[in-house]
Specification:
Number of strands of chain B: 0
Oligomer: heterodimer
Low-confidence stretches of chain B: none
Strand content of chain A: under 5%
Order of helices and strands of chain B: HHH
Distance between the termini of chain A: 65 Å
Mean pLDDT of chain A: 90
Structural class of chain B: mainly alpha
Structural class of chain A: mainly alpha
Number of helices of chain A: 6
Largest sheet of chain B: none
Radius of gyration of chain B: 20 Å
Number of domains of chain B: 2
Largest sheet of chain A: none
Shape of chain A: elongated
Number of helices of chain B: 3
Amino acid sequence: MSSNAQPVALNHQFEDLQQQYEAANMGMWAFIAQEIMFFGGLFAGYTVYRFKYLGAFIEGSNHLPIELGALNTAVLIASSFTMAMAVRAAQQGAKNPLLRWILATMVLGTTFLVIKAFEYADKYHHGLLPGSSFEGSGQLKIFFSFYFAMTGMHALHMIIGLGLIVWLIPKIRRGTYTSEYYSPIENFGLYWHFVDIIWIFLFPLLYLIGRDPWPIM
Amino acid sequence: MYVTIVGCLFCLTVITVLAAFIELGVLNTPLALGIALLKATLVVLFFMHVRYNTPLMWVFAAAGFFTLIIFLALLMQDYMSRDWQRPPAEFLL
């Protein structure tokens, strides 16, 4: 491309593609900083009550199925990997690999939510859903309130992410994204990885407190 | 390279689960959080491309986490120190 020809992907308010890319990237990081503070409120509440009621938090943690939690961690890490590959395919302007990797991400994200739904159903049947039918001490109820608020807010972010994939797929098929213009894919990838990071912290904080030594053996 | 990173993340997940069943006393939580922090750092640096980005983006990426750490530290220095010292009875209204 000659230097005075305007690239099609460049919006008129930007000097060049690099500046356009960096502006989009920076905006997304500003949004993620806001999301960190949003989840930060939940993490702060969790930290205070865990400090006050450690015994109940240990009891609550031992109610959670560690194998499903670990499996979901693996599923989400795998989906982050497929998303990173999707962004790489977008950078190379490879349309079909991009579509395949993003569909793989969608399948893994859905798998996570299905496993989570089974966990929620299990909690409900054991009377561990905070509410009038809750079977346990008030302090245990606080643990499960945090469990449902934190994993629920995380699951909501996953559902929004899956919705965004559904929105992106027809645009990918139409060939909207090229090696010159792929910021929406890149920024969606940042969002998806951020949601993964939240789970990376939720898993040890909720599932791994005060485990009894080797109960599986 | 992404394959190496995802391999590391899987290994760290296995390590953190196994470590949770070993009785380490007060060290269990710092270890679990340390591993989580390491995993998050790998995701941020490589999957989120911060490693290869401009210094401005480094600042933007670090700002959110940094603010959260300040927030949590100040919050807990309040809650953890509340019972350390009760004022003498004559100062209580």
